[in-house]
Amino acid sequence: MIARDGANTSLWQDTAAFQPGQQVSTDTVFDVLVVGGGITGLSTALALQQQGKKCVLAEAWTLGFGTSGGTTAHLNNFFDEPYYRVSKHFGPDNARLLATAAKEALTAMERNISDYQISCGYSRRPAYLFATDAAQAEELERMSEGTQDAGVDMAYINESPFPIPYQRIAQLPGQGQFHPTQYLHGLARAFESLGGLILEQCAVHELEHRGQQINASTDRGILKALYAVYATHIPPGVNLVHFRCAPYRSYVMAFRLRSGNYPQALGYDLADPYHYYRTQEVNGQQYLIAGGADHKTAHEDNTERPFRELEACVRQYFDVASVDYRWSSQYYESVDGLPFIGQLPGNPANVFTATAFGGNGMIYGTIAARVLSELITTGESAYKTLFEPARIKPAAAFHNFVSENAAVIKSFVAGKFAAESIPGLASLAAGEAKLVRMEHSRIALFKDEAHRLYAVNPTCTHVQCTVAWNQAERSWDCPCHGARFSPEGKVLNGPARKPLEPVQITGL
Ligand code: FES
């Protein structure tokens, strides 16, 4: 079983974890330190190692622990940010450039699968976008025009492989799908076979710059490198990009169907938030994988509700025999709809990042590998300007976005408390969490099924927002920039670097 950043296990993480070949740190000065063992980190490390760079990949947990193990792995040449909006904000040439990036990423994945014989259930599939009402039909029309203008095939058709009613439906041929952790493990094996070093359980804490060299303090001592890449979903620390991204949660369920009638295609409605569907065979069993019910991180009081909503939506159209897996996953949206890939603003020139992939993590992670490896090996990339993290965004988009990140609430510092002084503690049930407000303090409490009590200061260690409980994944989630913490306060997701402060409760 692959460990993950939440209490639920995804379909993809219900499999053996990767076993790195070597788990010892060395005194070598590497060319590149890649931080993070998801799609971006592994693809980038492999691309650089292929080009003769000597790389080390450091992962704080295990490969596929985070969003790459919780994705639904739709491999598309279209994006959550439709081409017509990219064209409007960045110009038609850049919309076509984005389409080229997606096409090249799909080809790069196919090449990896073929060159390294990665068995990951990969197949090409058509995608279907369905409009279920008049407003969605108008949006579909805009999307269709913009997509074709960008050079991507999209055409209206009159039939659907999905039993979901629609007003209009369009098909995009040549999309892809695979089992994401099998693909990640294949990349990891290829990286190691080329001499790359993978260190799991190796959180990177700080980068110290000594001339051209970076000395990274990690759980396994100092790692030295000439370049560093933060492939950590969002870079740690406090950075410009944190204020230009918003974190969201998406919900996913894997179903077995009575009929055995699994649509062999990718499907999307145009609701807001939209629902997405596909099928994958895993260990001889077909699953319908459906996702949706997204919300901003820590902006849903009851995180069981989105699962109920998603399941009800699927049961409306499919003859569900069983729900075999359910999990939620995090993604970041940028202010202008495009990711940030390149040099990390406010850092020396040899520090890079890739973030804000929206719901298109597999493709953007692969695009990032190309862009970052080109920037590191040559200093240039055809995509450098398009994805530049320090770019100026379209003003209109930025205006809307500011309110997205305005949920900063000051919390008070906690410390040491007598149990009898904490309101509601005596009535806290097993499996329940509470944010207790006292006169000068707040305490985040969780009691597990064994009646063990976890008490932490709810002030996020990133920039001091107050975390909220995520019951479905049993984590404390920050509404501001998406840091997530385990009940005992360990960092599950950045950008926070430090755990939540423990609170001592006496007299229990
Ligand atoms: Fe930024 Fe919590 S993630 S304040």
Describe the protein in words.
This protein is of the alpha+beta class. The chain has a domain at 416-506: Rieske [2Fe-2S] iron-sulphur domain (Rieske Iron-sulfur Protein), CATH 2.102.10.10. It has helices spanning 39-50, 83-90, 92-115, 134-149, 180-193, 305-317, 361-378, 384-387, 395-404, and strands at residues 29-35, 55-58, 74-75, 123-131, 155-157, 168-177, 197-199, 204-210, 213-218, 221-230, 245-257, 266-269, 276-282, 285-296, 320-334, 340-343, 351-355, 416-418, 433-437, 442-447, 453-456, 468-470, 475-477, 484-485, 491-493, 504-506. Strands 3, 4, 5, 6, 11, 12, 13, 14 and 15 form a 9-stranded mixed sheet that branches. Strands 1, 2, 7, 8, 9, 10, 16 and 17 form an 8-stranded mixed sheet that branches. Strand 8 and strand 9 form a beta hairpin. Helix 1 (39-50) runs parallel beside helix 7 and helix 2 (83-90) crosses helix 4 (134-149). The chain starts with 28 loop residues before the first strand and ends with a strand. The model is unreliable at 406-413 (pLDDT under 50). FE2/S2 (inorganic) cluster (FES) is lined by residues 460, 462-465, 478, 480-483, 495-496.
Shape: globular
Would you state the CATH class of one domain? Mainly Beta
Bound molecules: FE2/S2 (inorganic) cluster
Runs in which pLDDT lies below 50 for 5 or more consecutive residues are 406-413
Q: How far is the N terminus from the C terminus?
A: 35 Å
CATH topology assignment of one domain = Rieske Iron-sulfur Protein
Helix content: 10-25%
Please identify which CATH superfamily of one domain we are dealing with: Rieske [2Fe-2S] iron-sulphur domain
- The tally of beta strands, per DSSP, is 26
